[in-house]
Specification:
Blueprint: E1 5-10, H1 18-31, E2 36-40, H2 48-52, H3 61-65, E3 76-79, E4 82-85, H4 91-96, H5 102-110, E5 115-119, H6 126-134, E6 137-142, H7 146-162, E7 165-174, H8 183-190, E8 194-199, H9 202-209, H10 214-217, H11 222-234, H12 244-247, H13 254-263
Parallel strand pairs: 1-5, 1-6, 2-4, 2-5, 6-7, 7-8
Antiparallel strand pairs: 3-4
Bound molecules: adenosine-5'-triphosphate and magnesium ion (MG).
Adenosine-5'-triphosphate is lined by residues 11, 14-20, 42, 122, 172-173, 198, 200-201, 204-205, 208, 223.
Length: 266
Amino acid sequence: MVVSKVIAVASGKGGVGKTTIAVNLGVALALHGKKARVLDADIAMANVSLHVGLDDVPVTLHEVLAGDADVGDAIYRVVRNFEVVPCGVTLSGFQKATPDRLRDVVIDLIEGVDYLIIDSPPGLNRDSILPIAIAEEVLLVANPDIASIIDTAKTKAIADLIGTSVYGAVINKATFSEKSVAVTEIGKTLETEIVAVIPEDPEVRRALMARRPVLLYNRKAPASRAFMSFAKRMIGETPTYYDEDLFREKEESILSRFIKAILRKK
Ligand SMILES: Nc1ncnc2c1ncn2[C@@H]1O[C@H](COP(=O)(O)OP(=O)(O)OP(=O)(O)O)[C@@H](O)[C@H]1O
Ligand SMILES: [Mg+2]
């Protein structure tokens, strides 16, 4: 059997790019010859299907969690080596789904893949903590702004508490502007390795409008190159994408000092 990696993509704040990262990391791993599957564990506000253009599929995680369908029937192939298990979007489906079954579903989904990426809901509630508890490793996502960094620091604290190891953090929607916190400082603040920096890229939003992962929409877009580089790193090769500007050291900003003061451990 292939040794699988079960990775939960998590953040405190919503809208930072978890689903974008889960889907495009999956595609990037597939393009590198690995078999990847993304599970949409955002049971209340699912949107993986939106990112890959899967409409009206008959069986989703909702039906599986309700005990009405086998998990095998909820797996959909997007491209070679890349599959998704979408979650339904209806309220009635959400009401019938029993999250307690998620662990068993994950065990079934590991079979035959190199990576199982779990897209999680934002926040610090039962639904968002469950994927972290089930996964082998957590991939944190933050944007280079103070609210997002603080909230992701809380997600990391939960992972530490539960005992799930943190693979690292992805800084998404990165820009080199005076208003954004420097990448190097975010790593120090979160006390974890920054494993990828994905630039703010208008092609990501255009791809979503076209209902395709950006990597399949425009392979040459800066964000696509960053995702390919991230996947390389995950499979043990040397990353190729490096935008020097994004990593340029800045003087410690007031924002960073503020974050450190808030997160200071007693
Ligand atoms: N690198 C990027 N550059 C530009 N836009 C981006 C980038 N990453 C994500 N976005 C956009 O940000 C929005 C939110 O992204 P996404 O849905 O992936 O976030 P999320 O963390 O999964 O949200 P939620 O917490 O609601 O599940 C989308 O419109 C997406 O296209
Ligand atoms: Mg999402």
